Design the sequence.
């Protein structure tokens, strides 16, 4: 795979090149670009299959570089220091990112995933990411989720509730569909926190628009529109009632 590294930090680029030589010999770094103003031209000229893209750079950030390259014809692995908003946007589209300093095992896993990426899904993921970047408020109504069978693009309002299953999450969708995704419930919660979802139990995240009835109790329970009964933990009861009865 031909690869281009775009990052304004010289030492970070050198470290990544070294890691790729040691752990990902199938990746050939054909260019390192330290100036975001030149990044789009470099990618257009070299047409790599893979781009390692820093998010925070002078002049243009990584998302703005991608905007200049639409339609995106390459796999992209973001590299970043911790940036909560940026990471949330990337998770929302199920694209890969690496936190600096880059870990060798995480790098290998990300490269292997890029090698297996399907072009048609990549286009949808990039579309979701750039929509999320352009409209940070919760106006984007689809979310990309990695499932056992591949990647699923799911309208947010079709999700009724989510339950944890170890390091996986089971999403129950409308029309009695279920989807098992390789994300923890906490990760799903973070992706959906700007929508009308609430964690009501350590094992449950619910769409508040799909709550049919609340039954009183120590924590109480919820009856969802599909007939599922969801326990509410005592510690989350007050927050739930505030969401259900905002004027009280």
Sequence:
């Amino acid at each position: 795979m031909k690869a281009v590294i775009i990052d304004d930090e010289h030492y970070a680029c050198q470290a990544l090149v070294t890691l790729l030589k040691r752990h990902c010999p199938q990746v050939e770094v054909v260019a390192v670009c330290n100036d975001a103003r030149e990044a789009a031209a470099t990618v257009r000229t070299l047409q790599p299959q893979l781009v390692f893209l820093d998010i925070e750079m002078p002049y243009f950030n990584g998302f703005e570089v991608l905007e200049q390259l639409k339609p995106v014809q390459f796999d992209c692995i973001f590299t970043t220091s911790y940036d909560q908003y940026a990471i949330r946007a990337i998770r929302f589209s199920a694209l890969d990112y690496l936190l600096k300093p880059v870990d060798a095992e995480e790098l290998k896993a990300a490269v292997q995933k890029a090698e297996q990426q399907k072009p048609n899904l990549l286009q949808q993921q990039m579309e979701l990411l750039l929509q999320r970047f352009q409209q940070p408020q919760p106006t984007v109504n689809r979310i990309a989720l990695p499932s056992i069978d591949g990647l699923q693009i799911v309208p947010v309002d079709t999700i009724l509730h989510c339950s944890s299953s170890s390091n996986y999450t089971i999403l129950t969708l409308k029309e009695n569909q279920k989807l098992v995704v390789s994300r923890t419930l906490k990760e799903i919660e973070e992706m959906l926190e700007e929508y009308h979802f609430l964690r009501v139990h350590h094992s449950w995240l619910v769409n508040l628009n799909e709550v049919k009835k609340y039954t009183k109790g120590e924590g109480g329970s919820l009856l969802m529109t599909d007939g599922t009964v969801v326990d509410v933990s005592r510690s989350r009861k007050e927050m739930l009632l505030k969401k259900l009865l905002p004027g009280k």
About this structure: The chain has eight helices and 15 strands.
